[in-house]
Amino acid sequence: GPLWERPLLEVRLGELHTWISTCSFSAQGLLGAVQRAWSSFCAKYIHVKQGGPAGLSMLLAGYCLLSYGWNYQHFSKNSLGSLV
Amino acid sequence: VLHTTRPLHTTQQSLAPVPPLPEKGGEVRHGVIPEEFFQFLYPKTGVTGPYMLGTGLLLYLLSKEIYVVNHETAAAACILSVIVYAIKKFGPNVAAFADKLNEEKMASALAMKNEAIETLQKAIDEEKKEQWRVEGRTYLFDAKRNNIAMLLETNYRERLLMVYNEVKKRLDYQVAMQTLKRQKEQEHMIQWVEKNVVQSITPQQQKESIAKCILDLKALSKSAHAAV
């Protein structure tokens, strides 16, 4: 299909910047994008007959990475590289 | 604004029945990395590519101190090992339990559906039987009609009998009147005739008749004396 209707995973690397230019960055557009991403994740890993630990563990891993990224300042204070 | 020229319900899609859930979720390797990543790197780097990438990334993060090793690292390692052990040990049990719950739900829903189908089938059979019974209703009405006709007939005949009796009583009365009248007339006439006859017997006739009777009696007595 046309470029602006394809999901992100089906966009080639070379067309990435054109794709980004076509998607809407308004509040409604972003919210719609987040909703679509969440619903596709749920449909793939959670709403199945025989799910495993995969869905929940991926969410937890993502949460761990995000929280590590938000608290990086605090961590780097105690690192070896900050010894004066 | 409804575009009346637009045709409604052009596709076969409908909200019910809901399509069934997929059997298995997306494949995930080592619990956190989806299989698509490995497939994505397979054409270029083969099987070991993602692992090399992972090792290199890990060493880079550690060496550049983008990932800081502190007490929380040890805590995370312990927690992770416990979680992995628990999942490996109790995973299948939990899965079997969840499957059993699902089975029970499905069984109850199926039972409800079957029950509903059975009750509806019974209702259909009852309805058919009622329809068959309706056919017999004509006979019922015929019997009732016969009954009513008989009642009417008996009533009519009773009244006819009553009329006959009444008329006969009146006619008998008339007949009795006539006979009585004739009887009275007869009696009266006989009495009148007797009276007139008695009146018409003059004294002279009476003397003559008495003398004749005496002569007759004498004659008779003479004949009787003679007989004796």
TrEMBL record, chain A:
Pfam families: WRW. Keywords: ATP synthesis, CF(0), Hydrogen ion transport, Ion transport, Membrane, Mitochondrion, Transport. One of its GO terms (molecular function) is proton-transporting ATP synthase activity, rotational mechanism. It is found in: Mitochondrion membrane. GO terms for cellular component: mitochondrial membrane; proton-transporting ATP synthase complex. Its main location: mitochondrion. InterPro entries: F1F0-ATPsyn_F_prd. The keyword Acetylation does not apply. GO terms for biological process: proton motive force-driven mitochondrial ATP synthesis. PANTHER family: ATP SYNTHASE F CHAIN, MITOCHONDRIAL-RELATED, ATP SYNTHASE SUBUNIT F, MITOCHONDRIAL. Belongs to the ATPase F chain family. This is ATPK synthase. The gene is Atp5j2_1.
Automatic annotation (TrEMBL), chain B:
It is found in: Mitochondrion; Mitochondrion inner membrane. InterPro entries: ATP_synth_Bsub_B/MI25, ATP_synth_F0_suB. Its main location: mitochondrion. It holds the Pfam family Mt_ATP-synt_B. GO terms for cellular component: mitochondrial inner membrane; proton-transporting ATP synthase complex. One of its GO terms (molecular function) is proton-transporting ATP synthase activity, rotational mechanism. Residues 1-22 are annotated as: Disordered. Keywords: CF(0), Hydrogen ion transport, Ion transport, Membrane, Mitochondrion, Mitochondrion inner membrane, Transport. SUPFAM superfamilies: ATP synthase B chain-like (SSF161060). F-type ATPases have 2 components, CF(1) - the catalytic core - and CF(0) - the membrane proton channel. CF(1) and CF(0) have multiple subunits. PANTHER family: ATP SYNTHASE F(0) COMPLEX SUBUNIT B1, MITOCHONDRIAL, MITOCHONDRIAL ATP SYNTHASE B CHAIN. Belongs to the eukaryotic ATPase B chain family. Subunit b, of the mitochondrial membrane ATP synthase complex (F(1)F(0) ATP synthase or Complex V) that produces ATP from ADP in the presence of a proton gradient across the membrane which is generated by electron transport complexes of the respiratory chain. ATP synthase complex consist of a soluble F(1) head domain - the catalytic core - and a membrane F(1) domain - the membrane proton channel. These two domains are linked by a central stalk rotating inside the F(1) region and a stationary peripheral stalk. This is ATP synthase subunit b. It comes from Sterrhoptilus dennistouni.
